[in-house]
Specification:
344 residues; alpha/beta; TIM Barrel; eight-stranded parallel barrel; two-stranded antiparallel ribbon; 13 helices; 10 strands; 47% helix; globular
Length: 344
């Protein structure tokens, strides 16, 4: 394990107020989003869309790293360059999603566990050869009646830790993503309690497996009330609850925390990230940044709709959304950025 290399990669992924672009949707998920907008669900259209994202002029102003899917890391851009090389040439660190999705957790109805550990050591070696410098693994934790159970939390924490140590062995920075879902009517307090319990379990397993804390990134959910909860808290309250949870559960040795957006609207995700930095930035032990997918991509995808004439305006919208989140990371985001927007 090369400690210096891992630390340098984390630094590159989180420097200068930048964040990560998650463009690693599985083919079925990408196709579903295409279908909703009348876009053909083909290999070439997915390639064209990922080319739009990775090749957006000015993206590197706010994005330091991009997470790719297995399909994309093997593809060439429309200019004939591999996606990892194209990103690296733009100063963006290329990464790869390596989990194989979730399956039902045996004997625990409604709960999931992530698969993909079999053969992972060999796949990681291949991804390094393809140009990846970091990886991501997502665990899914649902809140409901009698959920999550301890078995679900333990199974997912153990898998995350085994994945993480294999990544570091291969020279890849692991992003550990234990996502407590927004679905449901649970309160902010309930989400806070579950998120804290999950993070304690994850870091206990990371320590047990020998993961270098300084060579990893945490990708958690923000502490939020469920989407169906009658009480939807302000950005300031959400920021306070999220920071309290992280301070209790995440070691100061972890260099970066990059939030997932988890179905939040682009504007809310930016507002809430900004609220965490308003008056708190210098006192935080970790770089607190973003690793958003839909909260950056969705406005651009809705504008593009598979039409070549819409590529340039869609790229401008994408970069604007990324810039909003960089401003939020710096505590400088405001609604004025939305009202002024960009000219398509």
């Amino acid at each position: 394990m090369n400690h210096a290399q891992l630390k340098a990669t984390v630094q590159a992924m989180s420097a200068d107020g930048k964040g990560l672009l998650a463009m690693d949707e599985s083919n079925p998920t990408c196709n579903k989003r295409f279908a909703a907008l009348g876009i053909a669900q083909t290999y070439e259209m997915r390639r064209a869309y990922r080319d739009l994202l990775a090749g957006a002029p000015g993206l590197n102003r706010s994005v330091a790293g991009a997470i790719l899917s297995d399909e994309t890391i093997r593809q060439l851009t429309l200019a004939g360059v591999s996606f990892p090389c194209a990103l690296a040439d733009a100063g963006i660190v290329p990464g790869i999603k390596v989990d194989a999705g979730t399956v039902d957790l045996a004997s625990h109805p409604g709960e999931k566990v992530t698969q993909g550990l079999d053969g992972l050591r060999e796949r990681l070696a291949e991804y390094v050869q393809l140009g990846a410098r970091f990886a991501k693994w997502r665990a899914v934790i649902a809140i409901g009646e009698a959920m999550p159970g301890q078995a679900c939390i333990a199974a997912n924490a153990h898998a995350l830790a085994r994945y993480a140590v294999l990544c570091q062995e291969a020279g890849l920075v692991p992003i550990a993503e234990p996502e407590v879902l927004m679905d449901g009517a649970h309160t902010l307090a309930r989400c806070a309690a579950v998120t804290e319990a999950v993070l304690h379990a994850v870091f206990a397993q990371l320590r047990e497996q020998g993961v270098l804390m300084e060579g990893m990134v945490l990708k958690p959910n923000m502490v939020l009330p469920g989407l169906a909860c009658a009480q939807q808290e302000s950005a300031a309250v959400i920021a306070e609850a999220t920071l309290a949870c992280l301070r209790r559960a995440v070691p100061a040795a972890v260099p970066a925390i990059a939030f997932l957006s988890g179905g939040q609207s682009p504007e809310l995700a930016s507002q809430r990230l900004n609220a965490m930095h308003a008056g708190n930035g210098p006192s935080l032990p970790w770089a607190l940044t973003f690793s958003f997918a839909r909260a950056i991509q969705q406005p651009a995808l809705a504008l593009w709709r598979g039409l070549p004439a819409n590529v340039a305006p869609a790229q401008r919208v994408l970069v604007h959304r990324a810039d909003c989140n960089r401003a939020a990371r710096l505590g400088q985001y405001s609604a004025v950025m939305e009202s002024t927007g960009v000219k398509q």
